[in-house]
Amino acid sequence: MKTSIKNLFAAVLTVAISVTAPSFVNAKETKKVTVLSEVKSFNKLNIAGNVEVILVQSANQSVQVYDNYYAKNALVQERNGELRISSFEKETLTVVVYANQLNEITASDNATVKTSGKFNALTLEVNLKDQSKATLNTNTIDLFAKVNGKSSLTLSGNTTDYNAIMNGTAAINTDKFVAENSSIQSKNTAVAQQQEVKNELPGTEVLTIF
Fold this sequence. Notes:
Mean pLDDT: 80
Radius of gyration: 18 Å
Strand content: over 45%
Structural class: mainly beta
Low-confidence stretches: 1-21, 201-210
Distance between the termini: 35 Å
């Protein structure tokens, strides 16, 4: 039985940007934007290669590739609830992902992912490999992070339960992150001791799910 894969190419609309790009996109010059408006059913994000993903929470899920998608060695594919984005060009490919809910983010190679505004979720798992980087402002009940290789994770926001596993020379910055309960495991004892998380949640913070 053939695996069912949604073919995004049929749903692509490519237009030239004639107005200023959104403030969270670092557009140095006018480029084309490829809009994948039919991406609707994903709750996992997997990025690889030389890609920068800007994550925006929105009830209307879609993907915007800030370049000529067809001219690049790039892949955007939705399969079994997972959105896969990769590019191995020398120039970094910028992609804006509008997502309603995510419960897993995976990044590898030199990929980077960052949130624009706060992203709310009940449960979020973050997996970083190689030299990937993630800067996430989140409001969750449960957050699990696994950071390997030379990857780095910067967290802000708050959670009820926070668990992290660190390997290699990976780094996690939690200076602006608050957790009621936290557990950090690392083969590097010195690194693990530095990962202190504040354990008081703001009394007025309310978790809102789209």
